Amino acid sequence: MSAANRLDRLFPALAEIPEQYRPGAPIEQRDYLVDGQLRTWEGSLAPVRSPVFLATAQGDEQVILGSTPRLDAEAALAALDAAVRAYANGQGAWPNLRVAERIQHVEAFLARMREQREAVVKLLMWEIGKNLKDSQKEFDRTCDYIVDTIEALKALDRRSSRFELEQDTLGQIRRVPLGVTLCMGPYNYPLNETFTTLIPALIMGNTVVFKPAKFGVLLIRPLLEAFRDSFPAGVINVIYGSGRETVSALMASGKVDVFAFIGTHKGASDLKKLHPRPHRLRAALGLDAKNPGIVLPEVDLDNAVSEALTGALSFNGQRCTALKILFVHEDVVDSFLDKFSAGLAALKPGMPWEPGVALTPLPEPGKCEYLQTLLADAVAKGARVVNADGGESRQSFFYPAVLYPVSPAMRIYQEEQFGPLVPVVPYRDLQTVIDYVLDSDYGQQLSIFGSDSAQVGRLVDAFANQVGRININAQCQRGPDSFPFNGRKNSAEGTLSVHDALRVFSIRTLVATKFQDGNKALVSEIIRNRESSFLTTDYIF
Hints:
By secondary structure, the protein is α/β, with parallel strands linked by helices. 37% of the residues lie in helices and 23% in strands. It contains 17 helices and 27 strands. Strands 17-20-21-14-13-23-24 form a seven-stranded mixed sheet, with helices on both faces. Strands 10-9-8-11-12-26 form a six-stranded mixed sheet, sandwiched between helices. It has a three-stranded mixed sheet with strand order 1-5-4. Strand 8, helix 7 (192-203) and strand 9 form a beta-alpha-beta unit. The protein is globular, with a radius of gyration of 25 Å.
């Protein structure tokens, strides 16, 4: 069956959806979390539209999932002030809790969060079009990340419980919080990637204002009560609304100490510029990427095609770690395109809850139109759509298109498409590929596919100072979460992993004294009488 025929019957009637996956009545959410209370917003609401349409007698009708508060700057600043009070210049109860006590709060939240798995997974499918398997994986991986973060902090605390003696100076070094943190996550992983900054920020003793992603907003609602009940008032505050109005006001206040943001480098730059004291603002940023896949002439072609297909089209290519441009050597490009197109044709388009579905509707309004402009530009400048039905679309669904041969004159050569367009560039001289990476504004990751050790080794050395991760015969990806996740150039600021994130959201503080009997006795008495949360030799098993 051609993609065009499949698209004719892509969207289901309501009665065709399994009952457990049907959308309920639209959710009118007016709650938001400030200072330990769920406040009710009496102002205007922002509609939440699903990328899923329903087939009706009147044609395709987009599903309206509900609405969320369209907070104004005043409401957002009230949330920020609650976080500022809870931190209290580092004198608040939360930043001064012992590590074991903060862990207990996070564990309590995790238990409550797990109770909401079914609700969150269903909203992931309906809000952003992520298939059932990947939605479940995102939820479970997020829970695993929290567990791993707790264990990493325990290990860090055990190391920090020791005193060190250097040059007749006795000292204890511990990590302490930085202050008030603003957390903003991306719509493609609205739970997982958001929590990879939110949880480390909280567990290290910072207070947080959290604004959910622009899509995947309602799925935070089932967690609001868990946040409220698991943390002291003001430690975690959840706001909604237009970022232009709310987040701009937060940054311009100068009260944000740490900015955790996953989005575009332009958005991050514009927001950072609003902060009146930029030298005091710490940032953890995950930004744009144009990750290349490089297929060498000596290669296991089946593996390269399999990894490139998944790398380019998992979640419809809507991943910062996706392979967004493929450089394929002239000697193997024809075979590569044949195998790639055949593999693509086997991917099942459909609705997120359908078994085995791989291609789903796109959540961003206007995304299909944008992809069509990139496709048209490439075709006008000499590329062709290689795969059957590539570029066919219906409402929010865009069938993947493989474009070949792509050249530097085309927009798709440089622009991050963040969607199911696969540009393939033929090359003869390896220097062409090296120059592309060196000249690129982005430096997150890349993949090298090949079996010639000399060529692979040459490329590893050429790119080691250009990107944060080099993948050999494997697609680009974030995990395992114990590995560093970062980038260079416009792609990132700071490093995130389970271990690194604890360091990103904290700073080392040293208490030191001369190694003399009186000082040793004083420190020992403080520890013995438990008169300090900082100076202690307690550690967590």
